[in-house]
Amino acid sequence: MRNRSLSIAVSLIGALLTAGCSTFGPGFEPVAKIPKGMAVIYIYRAPEFGGEALSYDVKAHDTVVTTLRNGGYYPYVVTPGQVELWARTASRQSSYRHTSPTPERADVDLLRLKHIDDAAKSAVTIDVKAGQVYYVKGEAGIRYFVGRPRLRMVSREQGESEIKQCKLIPEETHQARE
Predict the structure, then answer these.
(1) Residue 36 · residue 143 · CB < 8 Å
(2) pTM confidence score
(3) Where do the domains of the chain lie, and which CATH numbers do they carry?
């Protein structure tokens, strides 16, 4: 009897923990009807073993569009024109310097910081046309013990194939972070 009670308790705790960690909605569903004069960019990250450790914000301008997690997708409805989506997981500020550098040294330090920031940032620019559908695939890598995002445009065929494995990232996920 005691083993059975212990087994039920462990199962219940496991179910509660799993439910609490779930941040995704239903499986992939295409946008039923693209609003007139708009387009859809599906931002997704195909599920990978061990990919749960890294999530990152995908931004347009300086506004968070979604927080991209392993196995998630988000339909971003946009107006036509140039749209730059970008993500960054690590950024170093110049706070590591404790003394004021000489003017010549400051330029070198700023260039080094820009290089570090650029290495930690991934961006994709799309010339969006009304009524069209685009796919941006997010990936994650590790470099110097820091997770690095990678965003890239993929073909419609590849996007449609891979996004079927993904689940919707709810809007409240990114709204709560803004």
Answers:
(1) no
(2) 0.69
(3) 25-175 (2.60.40)
